[in-house]
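Revision sheet: structure tokens.
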Amino acid sequence: MTPGLAAIDASAVAAARARAPGAFGASPGRRALRACFWFAFLAWLGALLWWFDFSPARLWNGIGGVLTILRLMVPPSPGEHLDDILKGLGESVAMAFLGTVMAAAMAIPLGFLGARNVATNALFRFSLRRLFDGFRGVDQLIWALAYVRAVGLGPLAGVLAIFTADIAVLAKLYAEAIENAEQRQTEGVEAAGAPRVLVMRFGLLPQVLPVMLAQALYFFESNTRSAAILGIVGAGGIGLQIAERIRIRAWDEVSFILVLVLVTVAAIDWVSARIRHRLIGRTVPL
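Predicted:
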């Protein structure tokens, strides 16, 4: 290569490096910053493992205990409490259904109030969205403990816990669905001279209602699993049966209850998935 061509190539490379420095590799400063990040990450990970007293010996002993419990779970058996188990399972499904329906019904108007294309007052919308964030930050189990204290033991506390925990999440999801709705249909209803309420009823709601119903069905399936946990703290349902049998170490009955819960959740998931896909106009394979 001649000196002239080398000079041209060098200048072209320098110009390309100036235009796109990232294409020639990270700069020394970026590499140092990346190394500091990974060092801090590994140090934090090691500190957490030390804080929680993580050790291979303790982990091995725990695995041995889990294997012992699994051996005692086979074969699953309802014992002499099949009626109580089925009643508790039905109670959990009913809790999940009632709490989800109540939360979905309340979340629809809240979703409209939190949508940018409906609530034009930015301060009101911002305050409502932060209220949603606050409610979403409290887990169902915490709400269940509070409601057990307020209304006493039983499924009512579980229903209220599911309702309170889900309403803010569904309202946020509904608000986002309303914001992403097609505006042409809304503009057509407005052009016909309809008031604001009818614009939302005939311009927005028909577009987002299938999405709202699909999300409510998904939450019903999820809440069926959650209801089994809420019963452990006294909020009714199958969780109470699980807690009692764990306390007396009746592991074969515990495994029978878990199998029933899994079958129930799978059946609800199968049905709700087909309903959801039918609502949004898709087919789902078996």
